[in-house]
Design a protein that fits this description.
This protein is an alpha+beta fold. About 35% of the residues lie in helices and about 20% in strands. It contains 12 helices and 18 strands. The protein has helices at about 45-50, 55-70, 120-135, 140-145, 160-165, 185-195, 230-250, 290-300, 325-370, 400-405, 405-410, 435-440; strands spanning about 25-30, 30, 75-80, 90-95, 110-115, 150-155, 200-205, 220, 255-260, 260-265, 280, 300-310, 375, 385-390, 395-400, 415-420, 425, 450-455. The strands form 5 sheets. An 8-stranded mixed beta sheet has the order 3-4-6-5-7-12-8-9, sandwiched between helices. The chain has a 4-stranded antiparallel beta sheet with strand order 16-17-15-18. Strands 1-2 form a two-stranded antiparallel sheet. Strand 3 (about 75-80) and strand 4 (about 90-95) form a beta hairpin. Helix 2 (about 55-70) runs parallel beside helix 3 (about 120-135), helix 3 (about 120-135) packs across helix 9 and helix 7 (about 230-250) packs antiparallel against helix 9 (about 325-370).
């Protein structure tokens, strides 16, 4: 498909792309998809200050309220939770649900922004995405909004964003808590996934400082690597990264490669596709089930981690981290990601929903048959060492264990039934089969309790 894009004058010069940064830079049937007009909708604090400083929490609340007030036919705002300091964690729902469709009925994309509060570029891209979709009149995007659902959590860690810290107000890294669900923020995301059943989930982060030559791409991506993820979900997530996100980034002049993989070789645009990079070391990106991309993969969504570079790639020229030009580049590269996800769902949304919906049945049948091992470590690039083969058919919990974990079990949609005096049994024959042993088995690295395996 030929790549044609529409530039948007709203952004500053100085991005990794040639000329101005781009908004919604994808094509459908070979023609550019239009962004809203220059004057459509309110502007974020970041835009008003032309990239000199990030949108504040109060500005975010005002901005979203203004967009929702202007376009109630497109956008519905809800409050997912309140943090320990009282800040609201908001959800922007666009498209089909506003017209009355039920959650889970339509192909759904979820953007989770700024889980780490000191990584703000994804949040700015998410806020702009909400505005741009709310005001667009492009036929392709109108069709997407008529037939699909787009969910945006602009600040998954509002306390961390306000304080510019990685963790939340309690100094907890939310992006290690998506199995155990000890934090308010992780519980809010888990409830959202349970209730809306999104097929594609993008977790937007930033990384830096770069390691020149070895690790300095404008964008890094990774799919769920945990070995218990449904194979079709894993394969489709990887395909999105390699067949959509990477070429879309290259088409806009941004380099993109696999997260956590140090390489030596050309790192500019299409040169990556020549296969001349030489792997040096795998330094990150394992199958940790507490990390968002793995945890949502275990719950049958295409979980994608994206990291934009805080420091500039040497091919983009020198620049200080805190300059307006560099901050604008960081946001613009994240906008390429949001646009690529929309292009993917426009072209593949129904097929992706079929994959993720059917994964629930596949995992239920695997749990019933007991013919697929459970992996307590390893990843798709790392051989496992702790394996249950054959796996348990279920787990027995005491009534005390079940009561203590009731909230977590409910958020993971894990069903259980009384099986004796003071005893509850969790069968593996249910859609939550990939999550159950990691949460309940003492062999799991992040298990919440040591239940008794049922052979």
């Amino acid at each position: 498909m030929p790549k044609t894009v529409l530039t948007r004058r709203r952004f500053l010069q100085g991005s990794g792309a040639v000329g101005a940064a781009l908004s919604l830079p994808f094509t459908l049937a070979g023609r550019p998809v239009a962004a809203p007009g220059e004057g459509d909708g309110p502007r974020t604090g970041f835009e008003e200050r032309e990239g000199a400083s990030w949108t504040t929490h109060d500005e975010e609340l005002g901005f979203l309220a203004d967009v929702a007030s202007a376009r109630p036919d497109r956008l519905r705002l809800t409050e997912l939770a309140r943090t320990s300091t009282g800040r609201p964690l908001q959800l922007a729902a666009l498209g089909a649900p506003v017209a009355g469709a039920l959650a889970g009925e339509t192909p759904t994309t979820l953007f989770v922004c700024s889980q780490h509060g000191n990584e703000p570029a994804g949040r700015e891209a998410g806020l702009k995405l909400v505005r741009d979709l709310a005001f667009t009149e492009d036929p392709a995007l109108r069709r997407l909004l008529d037939e699909q659902t787009v969910l945006v959590v602009p600040a998954a860690n509002p306390d961390g964003r306000a304080a510019n810290t990685r963790g939340n107000a309690d100094r907890v890294d939310i992006n290690r808590d998506h199995l155990n669900l000890a934090t308010t923020e992780a519980r809010a995301i888990a409830r959202l996934i349970r209730d809306w059943a999104p097929s594609l989930i993008l977790d937007l982060h930033e990384y830096g400082p770069s390691a020149p030559v070895l690790y300095d791409d404008d964008l890094l991506y990774l799919w769920p690597r945990n070995l218990n993820v449904d194979q079709a979900v894993h394969d489709n997530a990887k395909s999105f990264c390699l067949e959509y996100l990477r070429p879309d980034a290259h088409a806009q002049g941004y380099s993109a490669d696999e997260y956590g993989l140090y390489k030596v070789g050309p790192n500019v645009g299409p040169a990556h596709d020549l296969g001349v990079d030489v792997q040096v070391a795998q330094v990150a990106g394992n199958g940790d089930e507490g990390i968002c991309r793995n945890a949502v993969g275990l719950r049958h969504a295409l979980g994608i981690l994206v990291e934009s570079a805080v420091t500039q790639n040497l091919t983009n020229g020198p620049g200080d981290i805190g300059t307006a030009g560099n901050q604008t580049r960081r946001v613009a590269s994240q906008e390429v990601v949001t646009a690529s996800a929309l292009r993917y769902m426009l072209e593949q949304g129904e097929a992706v929903k079929l994959v993720t919906d059917s994964a629930r049945g596949r995992k239920t049948r695997e749990g019933l048959r007991g013919d697929v091992p459970v992996y307590f470590d390893g990843a798709d690039n790392e051989a496992p060492t702790v394996v249950a083969d054959p796996p348990p058919s279920g787990y027995r919990l005491t009534s005390t264990q079940a009561a203590e974990l009731a909230g977590t079990l409910d958020l993971h949609a894990i069903e259980r039934r009384p099986s004796g005096p003071g005893e509850v049994t969790v069968s593996m024959a249910q859609p939550a089969e990939p999550v159950i042993p990691l949460l309940l088995d003492a062999r799991g690295k992040r298990h919440s309790t040591a239940a008794t395996p049922v052979d």
